[in-house]
Amino acid sequence: FDAAELTVLSSAYLGQRTVFAECFGLEPDQVRVLAAGSPFPLARRPIVYRPVGALSRATLGQLEPALAAEVAGILAAHAGDKGLIHAGSYAAARRLLADLGDRAPRAARRILFVDSSAGKARALDQHRTSREPTVLLSPSMREGVDLPDDFLRFQIITKMPYPDLGDPWTAARQARDPRWYALETANALVQAYGRGCRHAGDHGTTYILDAQLQRFLARYRPLLPPWFLDAARAALTDAKRTPAALAVVHPPCDHPRLFARHAGLVAGLPCPRCHRWIDRASIPAVD
To answer: Among 17-26, 193-202, 214-223, 225-234, whose mean pLDDT is lowest?
Structure first.
């Protein structure tokens, strides 16, 4: 920052001004923020909250089968769409792929597993050029990846992107400054969400499967931008209305969609293709 009188940092989101300044050793009154709301309508970038449990190192063994089942259901609902799955780590991605291979072999064959940073460009090229509804699986595609329009119609955030406390440097930094740890998580979450809708005419659905989202929102809401919070609030509201789900077809556009079933009633979620809310009368009867 000493190399120029004025330094401009541009990003979809840089975090809260005071926390950002402190992380970079700046005085808050030396930092000016110019912000704008999202130009993308909320209906084109919905979040669907489908928690399988609070995922952590202690609970992974117990919850990963439910996580894989949820991923398999989402893949079935987006059978003709390209997508992206954000895994918590390379090891978690390998376990998910193995489970999908046993649970849903056809869906597993759509997966392009990015098993290293070196293979990222190759996998992206294959994803973009393939006529098949391929789905990228990686822990390292939360930022720096541009997949507009039909290259990405859905994405799945399997786990809240907390920095790895198994890394000694990360653990030491978190112990010294818990706000830094929260800010890194908020930035990673927002960056991942941003893969789903790349321009005003684009649309994409983001599924979040980790129940820790709700606790993070309650505790660190000020670290997140209003346009993300709008989508998250809508997702939490929808999740309360739709506690269970099964796959049916959305008649207006013939697109497979997960619809919730509760107390003998069927209620709709917004379709990721046409974004209409579906009333009960428009959904075919389900046994």
So the answer is: 17-26
Instruction: Report d(CA 55, CA 211) in Å as an integer.
Output: 7
Please tell me whether residue 249 adopts helix, strand or coil conformation: strand
What does the domain layout of the chain look like in residue ranges? 42-241, 245-282
Dist. CA 228–CA 182, nearest whole Å? 16
Rg (CA), the chain: 20
Say what the pLDDT of residue 17 is: 76
> Is 50 exceeded by the pLDDT of residue 279?
no
* Element spanning 111, H or E: strand 111-113
Name the class of domain 42-241.
alpha beta
Q: How far is CA 45 from CA 28, 41, 106, 155, 235, in A?
A: 32, 7, 27, 11, 11
Residue 258 to residue 248: CA distance in whole angstroms: 6
